[in-house]
Amino acid sequence: MKNILLSILLLNILSWDINGQSxxxxxxxxSSKQLNWQALEYYGFVHFNMNTFTNVEWGEGKEDPRLFNxxxxxxxxxxxxxxxxxMKGLILTAKHHDGFALxxxxxxxxxxxxxxxxxxxGDVVRELANACKKQGLKLGIYLSPxxxxxxxxxxxxxxxxxxxxxxxxxxxxxPIFEFWxxxxxxxxxxxxxxxxxxxxxxxxxxxxxPQAVQFSDNGPDIRWVGNERGYSYETMWSPINKDEIYPGxxxxxxxxxxxxxxxxxxxxxxDVSLRPGWYYHPDQDSKVKSPDSLMRIYVASVGxxxxxxxxxxxxxxxxxxPNDSAALMGLRDLMKEGLKSRLIVSDKFMASSSVHGHPVQxxxxxxxxxxxxxxxKDIHPTIQWNTMDARLANAVLLQEPIxxxxxxxxxxxxxTDDSNQIEKLTGFTIGNKRIIPFKARKIKSIQVxxxxxxxxxLLSNFDVLNITSTRNESLYH
Length: 477
Known about the structure:
It is an enzyme of class 3 (hydrolase). The chain has nine helices and 20 strands. It is α/β, with parallel strands linked by helices and about 475 residues long.
């Protein structure tokens, strides 16, 4: 309900008209479900499947279903840890490339119904859906289009098989917030590759879960960031010409920054694993990313106009390993302190201009539905924060009201510390959220000069942060 109300508030501002000056959107703009998704910011991926038991990343489809037999599977444990870590949802690998399904599908013989786990009566998707519902997390589904087991793969009939499996997952397990595809497309058991019917696949999701966003290289709703290392880019536009690319597009790097004049709003998602691999491997127990590394990833993803999807490789017991849990709890603690506002009530804000009803003071209220608006004729507007009480900080946070489109193309931040030393930092896009780190010191003034934009400059939030490591030292020197 909160997300629905947020969307209504954001969409209502499209019609605001203050003293004769209309705040007009700059297209493309996000849909209500895209706004709801962007507000989540951070959620989890669970890679748990046949590959967990064969100790590989990509299976071949020839694996014996009897190998799948977790000894202590507990989806409630996954959800407890994810929720404690601050995640808003979990996306499950319902079927990976090898074709083994974690639920008893009517459309494949390669699934949990042929495994000894729960005498073939188990359903991992059901258990996770129930656990998410009980603890208030959202459920997402990853169903690989590639299937190295299914005999129909490589023929036109397989597209309907896949669509039927989609329907099962979309109609039997409650609300789905995200449906995740990837671009992998290799040969099936008959030696043929599949020509995927993306129009059909997208239509099934839109029919049965119209509020779910769909992820792939080109959307249709959200897109891959272009790497699996955990970061977005300094320039990151949510608009993109999505019809020019497709899942598995070989020249995706040409589109990784989005496009200023893109035809559709398809914001990026950063996917990264806690470990070197996406699936659990015992020899990687000592290679889990540290909380400090994960905090840097958060800043370089959510802090660069993307959402963050962190993968958790569940082990052969069917549990999250203690090392992975500890890393996530460490990240939670760093986020709790590092994302805490350093602003105080007595701080002063000034702007070069303001539209009546959209004063600069609105940028400190923490809301994305209110915003400062520069006058249209102010083509190089500025804002400035001043404090009489200089305080330790190492990052600036900026947000645009993206319901009205993404606007800012280039800006400069001027930081003045308590000894009157000045540092200038250049940024290129803002979008939903931008975090710009710098060397920690006591700051008394920050000015933002907006040098170029696609139209009237709007800013919903400004904040000052101090992001520290597990040693309580600055992450940015």
